[in-house]
Predict the 3D structure of the following.
Amino acid sequence: MTFDWAFFWDHLLTPHPDFVTGLWRTIWISIASMVLALVLGVVIALFLRSNNIFLRSIGNIYIWVIRGTPLLVQLVIVYSGFAAAGIYRFSDISVGAITLQAVIQAAIVTLTIHESSYIAEIVRSGISGVDQGQFEASEVLAMKPGQTMLSIILPQAVRTMVPPLGNIFNQLMKETSILSIIGVSEMFLVAQGFSASTFRTFEIFLVAAIYYLALTTVWTVIQGWIEYRLDKYMGIDPQQGVIAWIRELIVPRRRRNRPVPTEVESAPRLATTGA
Amino acid sequence: MPFTNQRSIATLEANDPSTSGESPSMSDSSDIATAPASPTSHLVEIENVYLELGGVKILDSVSLNVSRGEVVVLVGPSGAGKTSLLRTVNGLNPITSGSVEVDGIEVQQRDEAAGTTQRKLKGPQLRSARKEIGFVFQHFNLFPHLTALDNIAHAPRKVLGLSKEEARERGLQLLERVGLENRAHTKPSRLSGGQKQRVAIARALAMRPRLMLFDEPTSALDPEMVGEVLDVMRELAQDQMTMMVVTHEMGFAREVADRLVVMADGHIVEEGRPADVFSNPKHERTKAFFSRIL
Ligand SMILES: Nc1ncnc2c1ncn2[C@@H]1O[C@H](COP(=O)(O)OP(=O)(O)OP(=O)(O)O)[C@@H](O)[C@H]1O
Ligand SMILES: [Mg+2]
């Protein structure tokens, strides 16, 4: 086996500017798609919960179709298929000095659509997980359904939604490598270019793997921090101190059986301790 | 010139109370003018209400009127329909037939004879009726992500359109009234059961309701916390709040209630002054119920 250590360390520690550009592209495409997918996902989730059978059907069909087809196929349909059929052709958009390439637009649109179908299910079940008493308490205070959803239900649902949403984002960052197929020069495509020109395939893709791992690891830490803040927000005991929650990320003991935060639960427990 | 103007205003103001004081008929008529449009003195009118949930008959021909300032305590065995009756009063349970009016506003009305045509209040009307009705749940249903103060101030801001400052002011006053002014910034999870229920009462009062509904407000509490919640309710009754209270606290019923209503199997089986009903229950179901709990 030949493994060029010098080459490996060189590319790992002082990556080529193209590689860094690809890395940033991976990051910001992921973030932009996730944010948009969250918005679309919440809308679809509200469709799923609607009293209107028409909206409910739209939501269900959307999820059925999008989840039932591969991302790769969706990507090619959105970027090449639509253009070939004359439905829509993406073209570069320039705002001042910044140019948003056609492929990147198509990438973000596709990822948004794809992830939103998973997010909708997470949001829907997060909302149903909120205690019915919270809806009733809002109702008897004469709050409007929209106010109730935004100021009472969603803030509570977020706590149970964050772990599965975090997984979605973790997957999304790795799935961006698929974008190479339509020519988005994110990290994977850049690595492929290097590998073709240097024939150091193993070294180059090992470097790429380590960068992906770094991305998802950073995200795991951020997600842990978000969960910690949300626990405090919900008045649940979070892990004590920063050290403890970093340890918790590595050896998840408490997180495994953390209770779902509900008001009702505390009542019977109080009664039994009193007896 | 300005001097004489001021004097004429001053004399007008001085005259005003004296004239109304001299003629009692005038003050009477103004009282009537400020009274709500409802021709009756009843705040709550429940007429011939039937309620079915999931095909099961829950309330069977229930009629009950509650006067302004009256405290009605509802008792009865588990499954009698006490909770269901309270919930129909603010429209949480849609009735099968009959009518429910609060302060002259039809919260719900449904006529079985007229087929399925249902006269239910639309969202905005139902909400405006609900502003007048406070509801206190057995399990508090406080908003866990909001502090005690924000729990109370939230609806006045969102629903009544109070400014942040006004709502906060109102919230602090109510916290003081229920004895929790030092818990304003505490989240519900850090409150004891009794404290939670007092915040929940304050939250309902923040809407300045005309009617307060309590569904077993002390049933989920440790025995030592029951008193503090009943004290708050007793004070409310003294302040002439109209109240419908479902409770198993017979001491409270005896002392505070103007009327005791006994329910069983979806019916009102007996009602009267608490002392009379306790000492001389007429209906078999009432006797059976009392013999079990007293
Ligand atoms: N959503 C529902 N669907 C079907 N049946 C219901 C529903 N809610 C209540 N019931 C039934 O209606 C009956 C009356 O219930 P309700 O809760 O009003 O009784 P209650 O007098 O408040 O009893 P408790 O003292 O146990 O609270 C019960 O038999 C109950 O099982
Ligand atoms: Mg009940």
Q: What stands out?
A: DSSP finds eleven helices and eleven strands in chain B. The interface with chain A takes residues 90, 92, 123, 127-128, 130-131, 133-135, 137-145, 154-155, 158-159, 187-190, 193, 203-204, 207, 220-224 of chain B (CB under 8 Å). The radius of gyration of chain B is 22 Å.
